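ESCALATION

Customer reports they have been waiting on this structure for their group meeting. Please prioritize. Original submission:
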Amino acid sequence: MGNEPDRARRRGRVAKAPVGDGPAAVFARQLWELKQQAGDPSYDVMRAEHARWR
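Update from on-call: job pushed to the front of the queue and completed.
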C-alpha cells in the first residue's frame, strides 16, 4: 500500500459532470470542470496544499 501510485489507492465514486440548466447546475459544472483541469486532486490533497488554516 505504501508504494502504490495515488490513483491505485483512490477510493470512492468517480465524479461526473453535473447536469441541468439552472444557475446552481451551471456553477457546479464550472467547479467540476475547474477541478478536472487541475488534475482531479483528492480532497485531502487540496486541503493539504491550499488550506489557509493549518
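Sent to customer with the following note: The first helix runs from residue 6 to 9.
Escalation resolved.
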